Amino acid sequence: MKNTKTFILKRQEAILKYLEENNFAKTEELAKFLNTSNVTIRRDFQILEEKGLIIRNHGGAQVSQNILNKKFCDNATNKNEILKSSIAKKAAEFIENNDIIFINSSSTAIKILQYIGDKRIVVITNNGKVLGMNLSPKIEVILTGGQVYGRKQSMIGDIATQIISTITATKCFIGVSGIASHCGISTSVFQETTINMKMLENCNGPTFVLADSSKIGIHHNFSSGSIDNVNYVITDKNADESEVKKLEEKGVKVIFSEEN
């Protein structure tokens, strides 16, 4: 019985794959392809339709638009994660032993800690996601504390700002919602503007903005730092060339990650 169920599931998976690759297929076409009967294919169609995976029409079937949308979203999400990781990996190359670094609430910037290797560093961050990371014992983390901004698991408010004010970092890594030569860096969360500004101000070494190409040349809701406070931008190779040139004309060095 178990083998029969497994065989049926594999056949239905094969039907879905065929429909995804060919958009539409007739019952007879699939029966011939899978070496089975029309009745069996119709029965599979009924099960798959009840699950919302396909739509039956014109003597055959096609994949449900919901499935196509989900696959598109999954692919977009995977590509976005690859970009984030490649930008973070490039940023990690600039970290040296005994650095004291600021990292803000950015989901890209916090990924840097995965690529530190054997370096001994101190990290000051308002990014609550750091608590769930499996970090090297050589990485010392100072979490700012403060009010928790739930959507991003970030620490905001006076307590977070005051902690940052007491520390001078050797390097600063800021993820942003937008960066443009004419208006600096910006964020979608108003409460994080002072955090970003204070990290940039209290860094006596190079400052890095991590931003994928979709954020280059963009001004988001709230300004959170002057372009004069930014030394480097790390982005992917899809960044608009004219916007990159404008940043470089402002004295910002633009560095590209390996993936695109």
TrEMBL record:
It holds the Pfam family DeoRC. Keywords: DNA-binding, Transcription, Transcription regulation. Residues 8-63 form the HTH deoR-type domain. The keyword Transcription applies. It comes from the Bacteria. PROSITE patterns: HTH_DEOR_1, HTH_DEOR_2. It comes from Sarcina ventriculi. This is Glycerol-3-phosphate regulon repressor. Gene3D superfamilies: 3.40.50.1360, Winged helix-like DNA-binding domain superfamily/Winged helix DNA-binding domain. PANTHER family: HTH-TYPE TRANSCRIPTIONAL REGULATOR SRLR-RELATED (PTHR30363), LYSR FAMILY TRANSCRIPTIONAL REGULATOR (PTHR30363:SF46). InterPro entries: Carb_Metab_HTH_regulators, DeoR-like_C, DeoR_HTH, NagB/RpiA_transferase-like, Tscrpt_reg_HTH_DeoR_CS, WH-like_DNA-bd_sf, WH_DNA-bd_sf.
